[in-house]
Amino acid sequence: MIDERGVSTGINRPQLRPERLFELPCRALGADPEALKTASRSRQLSRQRQLIVGLGAERWSQRTKDLAAVMNRMSDTGIAWVRRCSERRLSEPDFALAYLELDAAVAAAAEDA
Questions:
Q1: pLDDT tens string 35-80
Q2: Rounded to whole angstroms, how far apart are CA atoms 48 and 94?
Q3: Whole-prediction pTM value?
Q4: What is 18-112's CATH number, 3.30.460.10, 2.40.128.110, 1.10.1750.10, 2.60.40.1180?
Q5: CB 57 within 8 A of CB 103
Q6: Where does residue 40 fall: left (phi above 0), alpha (psi -120 to 50 degrees), or beta otherwise?
Q7: Which of 25, 58, 83, 102 is most buried as measured by Cβ atoms within 10 A of its Cβ?
């Protein structure tokens, strides 16, 4: 959104390195960064990966392959997480809310840093 002065009223999203954009959502989600880098496919870890990489690519202008690399994955895996994140945001209200809350939490943490 733009106000009458032409200034964005949206969330301020500073440019962050991929490692930082992995760290901040992990902290906000209470996620274990090392667990997210494992091959485990638990529902909780899959959901967290989708939220982190999807948010990074869609809202924070991160390259999917860079975020996937931080998590020790190939770019095609990161692309699949982004696609699944997008699908879930559109079909699951709880996931969409978690996505928005995570975006706000990451933006606030980025400003505080």
A1: 999 999 999 999 999 999 999 999 999 999 999 999 999 999 999 9
A2: 13
A3: 0.89
A4: 1.10.1750.10
A5: no
A6: beta
A7: 25
